[in-house]
Inverse folding.
């Protein structure tokens, strides 16, 4: 592995990488990669109605664009990570972004809905592998005293996808058609790939590779299993409702495309705030932060059908929803990292798989409900599920996530998903 200009006097542990130019350019390149992935993943939330109209399909069928990537990513996270456990991580990340660019361009040119779904399957492969590998990279790119900040920078890209990516995509879709939004994402992803090639150093596999035995060992732990349960409930609640928030805003709030774009922008900005507020706090006091986030999400989704019939009411509740969900992934990832202090990449695999599987299930379940009832019913069910998540977090979450001190990768990573 290459040395840096600031090489320490003693060798780094196996699996750690030094760079000649410093770690922050690489951190920013990985951040841009996360932004591209997240924006591509959740872009259909803002474009669900026009895409459905193009192919003459229902909102529930269009929701498969969220279901498929989640389910594929849940399988890809362990499968690809284990299969490539001895591959250079830089090579893997670059290959995954190339696949993402091709998926975006296929989505833009899709002649039928089946081609769109094929592109979303490819996206699922990218999500599962990129998140599993990338979520533990910060300790290998910057010095120990800057790892928490680097984690925060990398995972702040997730709410930025909501703040910048989705509203920009919705605006572009309203001006030039939804295909233009995916074409733009394809071009952006190619630019990010170039940045990774330039900035990211060679990254040998970690000292403790992520094999099936490691994953089985983690699943045997009580902390891991309870973390999976809480993550399932809160992500089910969020994505079960959020996937169909655009039809709700159009049908119940009577919002036009411009207002919906603005509301999604406000939601994303609130998510960024929630991520920043929870980043350090979740590492010190996981139980109260996670419980409060789940309870606030429950309140926002339960009240939206009652108070979201007007633009002001919808705006306030979407802001609260954004703040609440912005804290969720950082709490979930801290939980898994605390449960697996010696194997942060394996913790990333479980985090990614649980999150993405639930996203797929939530979108599928929400689609089945919305096709048979209304978006309002979906939101009420989401709120009830979030309440259950809050109770579960209160009863089972560790009081603090900072108990794992043996691995620098466990120092308060901050994230959100979408």
């Amino acid at each position: 592995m290459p040395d840096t200009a600031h090489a320490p006097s003693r060798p780094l542990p196996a699996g750690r990488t030094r760079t000649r130019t410093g770690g922050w350019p690489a951190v920013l390149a990985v951040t841009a990669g996360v932004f591209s992935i997240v924006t591509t993943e959740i872009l259909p939330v803002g474009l669900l109605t026009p895409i459905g109209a193009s192919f003459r399909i229902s909102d529930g069928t269009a929701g498969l664009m969220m279901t498929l990537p989640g389910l594929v990513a849940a399988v890809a996270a362990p499968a690809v990570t284990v299969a490539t456990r001895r591959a250079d991580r830089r090579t893997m990340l670059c290959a995954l972004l190339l696949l993402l660019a091709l998926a975006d361009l296929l989505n833009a040119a899709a002649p039928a809905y089946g081609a769109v779904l094929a592109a979303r399957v490819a996206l699922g492969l990218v999500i599962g592998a990129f998140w599993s590998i990338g979520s533990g990279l910060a300790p290998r790119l910057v010095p120990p005293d800057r790892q928490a900040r680097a984690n925060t920078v990398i995972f702040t890209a997730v709410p930025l996808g909501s703040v910048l990516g989705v509203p920009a995509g919705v605006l572009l879709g309203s001006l030039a058609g939804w295909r233009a939004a995916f074409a733009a994402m394809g071009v952006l992803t190619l630019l990010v790939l170039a940045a990774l090639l330039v900035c990211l150093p060679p990254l040998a596999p970690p000292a403790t590779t992520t094999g099936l035995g490691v994953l089985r060992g983690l699943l045997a732990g009580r902390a891991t299993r309870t973390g999976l349960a809480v993550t399932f409930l809160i992500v089910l609640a969020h994505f079960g409702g959020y996937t169909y928030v655009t039809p709700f805003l159009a049908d119940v709030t009577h919002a036009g495309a411009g207002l919906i774009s603005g509301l999604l922008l406000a939601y994303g900005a609130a998510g960024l705030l929630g991520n920043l507020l929870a980043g350090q706090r979740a590492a010190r006091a996981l139980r109260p932060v996670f419980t409060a986030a789940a309870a606030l999400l429950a309140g926002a989704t339960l009240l939206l059908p009652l108070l979201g019939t007007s633009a002001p009411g919808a705006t306030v509740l979407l802001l609260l929803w954004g703040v609440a969900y912005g804290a969720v992934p950082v709490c979930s990832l801290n939980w898994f990292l605390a449960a697996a202090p010696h194997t942060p990449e394996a913790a990333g695999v479980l985090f990614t798989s649980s999150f993405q599987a639930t996203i797929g299930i939530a979108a599928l379940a929400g689609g089945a409900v919305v096709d048979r009832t209304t978006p309002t019913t979906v939101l009420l069910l989401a709120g009830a599920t979030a309440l259950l998540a809050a109770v579960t977090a209160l009863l089972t979450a560790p009081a603090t996530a900072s108990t794992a001190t043996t691995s620098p990768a466990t120092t308060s990573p901050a994230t959100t998903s979408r």
Remarks:
- The CA atoms of residues 133 and 345 lie 6 Å apart.
